[in-house]
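Q: Can someone sanity-check these two? First one:
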Amino acid sequence: MQLRDFGRTGMQLSVLGFGCGAVGGLMVRGDPAEQERTIAQAIAAGVNYFDTAVQYGNGESEKNLGRVLQKLKPANVAVGTKVRLLPSEFGRIADAVTMSLEGSLRRVGLDHVDIFQLHNPITETGGGFALSVRQVLGDVVPAFERLRQQGKTRFLGITAVGDTAALHQVIDACVLDSAQVVYNMLNPSAAEELPTNYPAQDYGRLFDHTKAAGVGVVGIRVLAGGALSGSTERHLIAALAPEPIGSAMTYDADVDRARRLIPLVKEGFVTSLTEAATRFALSHPAMGTILVGIATQQQFEDALAAVQKGPLPRTAFDRLSALWQEFSGEPR
């Protein structure tokens, strides 16, 4: 398994991380024995980053990950978790952040996590579940820093969703170590300019900002919540079709566009759309580690096989660029 430098942290993370999220569902609703087998296989293959959150199954993901790690006792693995603040907690952010992390540590069975991340959207002025840039820099980051000083987390991060300009401001402040960034074959804008009137959020070459700030990147929504399988079918333990992040306005629209990328398979660049999506995400040098949602051990094995094939060839990117042009002007 290839290891990559993770920003300025000094950590080296496996290019394939282990996503414990609710979309795939293995670590939330899966069979305990299969959870253990899959994590054991991942560790044996060289995976050393495990990403969870209290929001995944109201703590079930953290509990299940903790149970398996305590049984397997692997050496040198990194764990990341997250806090999602409720609007009712915005007036007492420091206390809410502290309570959340302490609860996460109890569930995972650790005295600290390697990365603690804000799970709320970030916008210029806030509103709803979103936090403003001022709240993130003035309240969240200082609370995170206190937890780092107490030894409860090593590094600080965000899930980079919300308004593009706000995300740029927070990352440019150089107070974070990690950012979870949406990057997939339906929305490559974290890396490059989109075609004119392209139907997706423009993240404004976010990777340029993470690189300049020394921020490590965790690739998320690599399969666009499953849409980049090109199928609307979902495993029994997977979540219902999720709301898209950064791409179309509906999941069905994401699936329809994903199917229009099938020429990559038909023309022999890859054997499946999911392979293409996985290899696409790891192709960019800014990427530290990628997370692929999984429902079964077989899905993990498929992701591992794709990663072992390495980045997509340049000719595949050229073909993708032509396919993206066909989306220009369509409603999001």
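And here is the second, same format, sequence then tokens:
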Amino acid sequence: MRFDGIYTPIVTPYHADFTVNEAALAQTVELLVGAGVHGIIIAGTTGEYYAQSMEERMDLMGRVHAMIAGRVPSIIGTGDMRTENSIEYAKAAKALGADAILVATPPYSCPTGREIALHCLAVDRAADLPVMLYNYPGRMAVNMDEECLDRLGRSPNFAAIKESSGDINRLHMLARDYPHIALSCGMDDQALEFFAWGARSWVCAGSNFAPEAHIALWQACAVEGDFTRGRAIMSAMLPLMRVLEQGGTFVQCIKHGLSTRGIDAGPPRRPLHPLNKDEKRSLEEVIRTMNTTIAAITGEAN
């Protein structure tokens, strides 16, 4: 599988009692498919997998995969603290007919590069599907280092890496030394730099509610190679990216962003809490300004 385009890690909408809002989930899938995203990631961090039981995750995998119905690729996240659990998620993804899996470093245990590689290889063997690696030391505490990447590069299934370290030197290293593992942008405010270094895909939570803006940037840079236009679009998107990253309200912002599209994604699960009124108002203004600016750049209706 070639990862090319915008891949949305879909949210899990909840009712006020934290049960899954299936109607809002279906609406979100339809919004994304209709807008033209190139794939949907199920059970990513944005989907709050960490706050769900194994049974809930398995159920949601099946529900969302069925809603997608093959219209775009479905990628299923296998992230967990235990390798054994990740293997079970990988097996379930295979059984469902998923197109690929997302494999992250197990959090909290701080494994070495060798141990991360052995974890990834065990998950790979369970599914034998294309794999997008997920490097996010901000949450996992460690990087997928060169030892890890050298070991994984021997298997053709490890097709891409979502790089979320924020370290521009790692971007250079991956592009230069590991060209066989496709770059996927996982650090939103560096999307322009990723595309300049040859990335063909972007895993972006903001595309839950603003798929058009994210597709516009990908189209300008990755498809047309028009980085002048890309810089203009990126400039319009940066205020949104700053809001999403401030104060630990990332998932809350994504969920409230969906409400601006008429989809009630509900509250995040605890320990997180919804945005307050001022935070909601600020996010809404940033989204309105971004949409107006990008519409003027692309010449499309707002």
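A (reply): Looked at the second one. The chain is about 50% helix and 10% strand. The first strand starts at residue 5 and ends at 9.
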